[in-house]
Write a structure and sequence with these properties.
The protein is α/β, with parallel strands linked by helices and 481 residues long. The chain is 61% helix and 11% strand. The chain has helices at 2-10, 13-16, 27-36, 53-63, 78-86, 99-118, 122-138, 144-154, 175-181, 187-198, 228-250, 264-275, 280-294, 298-311, 316-331, 348-365, 370-385, 392-398, 403-414, 418-436, 441-447, 453-464, 468-480, and strands spanning 41-45, 68-73, 91-94, 163-172, 206-212, 216-224, 254-263. The protein has a 4-stranded antiparallel beta sheet. It has a 3-stranded parallel beta sheet with strand order 1-2-3, covered by helices on one side. A hairpin with a 3-residue loop joins strand 5 and strand 6 (216-224).
Length: 481
């Protein structure tokens, strides 16, 4: 009660541009109020009865991400700070709380809120810009004209001739030690935390994380500069700052490597094709074409298919693989085998063209939700391979979809995010092994595809409420009743 009263009287809230909407004793009261009223900022202690401020931050992060959160705590605990970062908390204030610190924080936050209200579409344009350059790097646009058409339609602040772009790889080091000693919140929340450190928009340089791997991030940096050297200097400064923050705030060691700098959309497109000719771009292109086709965007799918066929017409093996993937659209769920042999006068390119046209016809005339069957196929694959370290990218490639489309439709069809579904399945399998066998905990950990026993134990407790050993003991007691 004293803290709440102090916060109400400590500042001239009206002068700072705020109005106190209410004060509450616990998390439940706060959530009920937020559900029924418009709220911009929540100031909360971390330690409370029943649920904590961390629980509140998690709820707001998932349901009301636009609400800014400020934590107040008498504990300068690293674990609290970690969790705050993972839920994108605006600031973390340590008691005793001084007038100047609270005033400066609220003044700074006020500027952020005012800017957001003056530019309601700013965040949308940042996202659109981020997705645009990710698509450029993946080879979604056939040529400069296609990219410029999208820029014109959306009104993006992108100069197709002056934009500088380069790729960066960030390598995460000593992950086993990191997960066992410092991080117990799961890989998805680690990605959220890294996002909050890297994706602070500071024009004129924009940084976009385009791909996550277990121990690596792939990043695209863009900006409009007359001098490429100035772009590189500012980029290095920004990367050094982000890497230092990861080390200081998350205890996560990393290093980065900046790739070749390119200028203009045309240069970026040429770079993406050259560097992915026989590597990543063909598979991404193929899976994006299929994803566009299945989502009903046949015109875009055909345009990208035509350019891809032209570029890779001499890559016979790739054309055969692509034909197999397209044929799986109209054979998925059917019994029997497909005849992959070419006719006597049929080239790989002709077979691919015929497969694409048949897939288009099948999709156009089908009343069946084709994604249902592909997602079911992915679920079967996960069930058969849960004991491995499988990623979203692995499963998306298995069913020949782009990771972005696969992630979206997997959530739509299953009701769960991919990482949550896989984690839950692994823990359920582990629980069954603990109940029904006498395998050691470290063996069970390995059998369900986890590398770190400590990480497995923490995740198991998160899902079941018990450590693996306690779960086994309690199950044995229940059996003997």
């Amino acid at each position: 009660d004293f803290i709440r009263k102090y916060l109400c009287e400590a500042l001239d809230w009206h002068k700072l541009g705020y109005e106190i909407a209410g004060t509450f004793r616990n998390v439940s009261e706060t959530i009920e109020f937020v559900k029924k009223n418009e709220v911009d900022v929540v100031i909360s202690d971390i330690r409370m009865t029943s649920k904590s401020g961390i629980d509140l931050a998690e709820y707001l992060f998932k349901n009301y991400p636009e609400i800014k959160i400020i934590f107040i705590s008498g504990y300068k605990k690293f674990e609290y700070a970690q969790k705050a970062i993972s839920y994108n908390v605006f600031d973390y204030l340590i008691k005793p709380l001084t007038y100047s610190k609270l005033h400066d924080t609220m003044e700074q936050l006020g500027k952020v809120l005012d800017k957001a209200k003056m530019e309601p579409s700013a965040e949308l344009f940042k996202q659109m810009r981020r997705h645009f350059f990710a698509d450029v790097m993946m080879g979604v646009y056939v040529n400069k004209a296609d990219a410029e058409e999208y820029i014109t339609k959306t009104g993006l602040n992108v100069d197709a001739d002056k934009e500088l772009c380069c790729t960066i790889k960030v390598y995460l080091k000593n992950l086993e030690e990191f997960f066992s000693q410092y991080w117990q919140h799961g890989i998805e929340r680690l990605h959220n935390a890294i996002n909050s450190l890297f994706l602070v928009e500071e024009p004129p340089i924009y940084i976009y994380i385009t791909d996550y791997r277990y121990d690596r991030l792939e990043i695209v940096a863009t900006g409009q500069f007359d001098d490429p050297e100035q772009f590189k200097i500012k980029l290095i400064y920004k990367m050094e700052h982000a890497v230092k923050q990861m080390k200081d705030m998350l205890k996560l060691e990393s290093e980065y490597k900046i790739g070749m700098l390119t200028k203009g959309i045309e240069g970026i497109l040429a770079w993406s094709i050259k560097n992915g000719l026989e590597k990543d771009i063909p598979s991404r292109r193929r899976h994006l074409i299929i994803s566009l086709l299945l989502s009903g965007n046949i015109e875009a799918s055909r345009s990208l298919f035509t350019s891809t066929l032209s570029e890779f017409k001499n890559s016979t093996d790739m054309l055969k693989i692509f034909a197999d993937e397209l044929e799986s659209i109209y054979t998925v769920g059917q019994s029997g085998t497909r005849n992959d042999a070419l006719g006597s006068d049929e080239t790989a390119a002709e077979r691919l063209q015929a497969s694409f046209e048949r897939a288009v016809e099948f999709v156009s005339n089908s009343d069946v939700k084709l994604y249902n069957k592909l997602i079911q196929k992915s679920v079967e694959y996960i069930t058969e391979n849960y004991h491995k370290d499988i990623s979203l990218e692995d499963v998306a490639a298995y069913i020949a979809l782009s990771p972005v489309y696969f992630s979206r439709y997997f959530k739509r069809e299953t009701g769960e995010k991919f990482i949550d579904y896989v984690s839950r399945l692994k823990i359920e399998k582990a629980a069954a092994l603990l109940r029904q066998t006498e395998y050691k905990v470290q063996d069970v950990c390995s059998m369900v595809g986890y590398r770190s026993v400590q990480h497995f134990c923490k995740l198991f407790k998160l899902y079941t409420g018990h450590t693996p050993s306690a779960y086994r003991s309690n199950s044995a007691k229940e059996l003997n009743k």
